[in-house]
Each structure stands twice: as C-alpha cells, then as structure tokens.
Amino acid sequence: MDNKLRAEFPLLQNKINGKPLVYLDNAATTQKPRSVITALENFYIHDNANIHRGIYKLAERATLAYEKTRKDIAKFINAKKEQEIIFVRGTTEAINLVAASYGHKNFSVDDEIIISTMEHHSNIVPWQLIGEKTGAKLQVIKINEAGELDLAHYETLLNKHTKMVAITHVSNTLGTINPIKKIITMAHAHNVPVLIDGAQAAAHLPIDVQDLDCDFYTFSAHKSYGPTGVGILYGKEKLLDAMPPYQGGGHMIKRVTFAKTEYADLPQKFEAGTQNIADVIGFSSAIDFINSIGINTIIQHETELLKYATATLTKRNGLKIIGTAREKTGIISFVLDTAHSHDIATILDTEGIAVRAGHHCTMPLMDFYGVPGTTRVSFGLYNTKEEIDALALALEKVQKIFTRG
User: Fold this and answer.
1) Is 214 a catalytic residue?
2) Structural domain boundaries, residue 155
3) Which of 103, 168, 206, 348 is the most exposed place for a label (fewest CB within 10 A)?
4) Which listed residue (157, 295, 361, 371) is catalytic?
5) How far is CA 98 from CA 170, 190, 213, in A?
6) pTM for the model
7) Using CA atoms, how far apart are residues 351 and 373, in angstroms rounded to an integer?
C-alpha cells in the first residue's frame, strides 16, 4: 500500500522510543483511519442524542445514522435482512449471547457442542458455562501439526447428540483459514446449526453469510478498522425469533406490566438499554473505508506480505513458525530457541516494533504444540515489506543479545 493510504492513519505517524512505529499487532486490534475518527468527533459535536426515543431533530439524526450502520453491515456480509444484524460489544459478547440464549433453550444433559483445538477462549468458555447449566458437553475437533482441522475426525463427532458447531473462520494464532462452508454443509446434514467466529476474517476475507449458509456469524468492529466496543451478531431470522432475550431492560420491550413483559421484535429484542451509539456510527465509516479499497485488493496485499514475511523469517536459524496451513491469512506465530516470547516482544518494542507475545487466548492450542506461548506478527492493509525488513533486523538483535557468552 502506498504512503497516501498510510497517511490516513494518524497513529502510524507516531514514533516509539524515537523510532518509526512498526505496528504488527493487527489481530489484536487495527488502527483507525481518519474518516472513522472524524465520524466519532462529528457525532459528539453535532448529533449526540439517545436513539429510537427522542421526538426531536438530534435524536432523529442519531437514530438514522445508527440504523444506517445496520444496513451497511447487512450489505457488507450479504445478510438477507438488516433485522438479522444485532449490535453487541464485541465478538465475545456475540458468542455469549448465542450460548446463553440459544443454548439455554435448546441444550440438555448429554447434548454435545463441537468446537476445535484452535479456538479462542471466547469460543470455548461461553460453551463451557452453558454446559455447566444444561449438562451439555464439549467435543473438540483435532488439528494436524500444520494447524489444519481434521475433517475426518470432525465427521466422526457429528451425531444425534450434537446441538451446535462453533468454529473460528480464521485462527487468531495460526492464521489458518478453515473450510467453513464445508464444515457448515456437514453439520447441516445432521440438522445442526453452526456459529462462525469471524473476528479475524471480516477485514481480510469476503464474507457472504447467505452463500455460507451459516446460522450465526460474529465479528468485531475494532479488528476491522472501526471503533472499540462494537460487535456484530448475524443470525438467521427464524433462529433469532425463537431465542429468548439475552438481557432485559429498556428498548427491548413492547409492553411491560408487573405480571408480564412482551418483547420487541428483531433486532431490538437483543439490544437492551442505551447502545454504543457513537462507535456503531463510526463503524459505518470503517466499512466505507474497506469498501473504498476493495477486499480483493486487501487480500492481494496481505497475501504478498505473508509470503514475504514467511520467506524472511524462515531464513533465521533457531526460528520456528507455528502453523503452516496451506490456506492462511496474514498472521505468523513463531518461537525462537534462544528467547522467551515476552523477552522478544520487549526488545522489539525498543526498536519501535509492536507485536503480540504469549498464549493469545488459545491455551489449549499452546498445549497441543507444547509451547508456553509464541511471538505473533499480524498484518493489516497499511503494513509494508519494509516493516518486515525492520522486524528481521530487530530479531537479529534479539538473537545476538541472547547468544552472548
């Protein structure tokens, strides 16, 4: 990507420890373009009001902008109806909502929920919590050393007890792109619904929920160049209609008496209380930004970065990449035989390079590979090959420090 595009991201112009910032932690959160920052500022300066309630101009403008984002997201992922888009705080809350609401109604003792070895804790713990309440149990799909799902094993797990399949679209640690369309088709052959954790996919791959035929799809704004505190739950209308509310309060009701409450229609049924209005509106600008570049252009750029970084890092003696799936996005996790991941990240920071170190909220995956953690670099549309070269030079410094004497 050219310097003109990078200039749209004010934070990237900063220096860290007196050196140009090299931001390689996009799997944790992406930086925000000026258009998103401006949208937030404009809302608070010109339109700040609560939505759906006020019969005055500010409230009307805020409501229109908020609901426009819902329409934009529906189009972005090709949902059939905008009512199938629910605003939550993040991918984590979206998964918790489905686990608590759908699970409470549909799971019972000896039922099974299929997940995989590579899942983020956010797609493990909510299912464990509802399992403790209902008696449902987790079944876990194995992976191979490359970090690819064992679909033959998955097929053996599908049975009459299976009540949900919950799988990540892209591994936040390995970068593996899972064959989710095939996974969904296999589950539907057993009449089992499928939830997809799309947190690492939405800004890096085209998403078409109708083509995938997934039952639920979740992702976060802040990993897609949007503000923090906004998540998206897509669900098929018939499933969402049948699910009880996740939270109770204002706005999600039609009528309340002390004897009984009648709930609102979709999507309001799942959006209790005052929503994160400004940041939802800001996410619309992020979607516009992604669309202005084009998802295919983003894929091409990030694929080139992945190939270049993989080739560059594998030249280093003592460095091992964890996760070598044939289908990957721009995420590389690695270990060095001379240094702990936390030490690596600390030294890289002195060079102005931001990476992630640790278990990446995938402890069971770390156990599979027999490592306490990895160093992870993850790319966004604004990263460059020159930044990868800077990373390689900094890693040379790390190895020199830990091989002295």
Assistant:
1) no
2) 36-291
3) 206
4) 361
5) 19, 20, 17
6) 0.97
7) 21
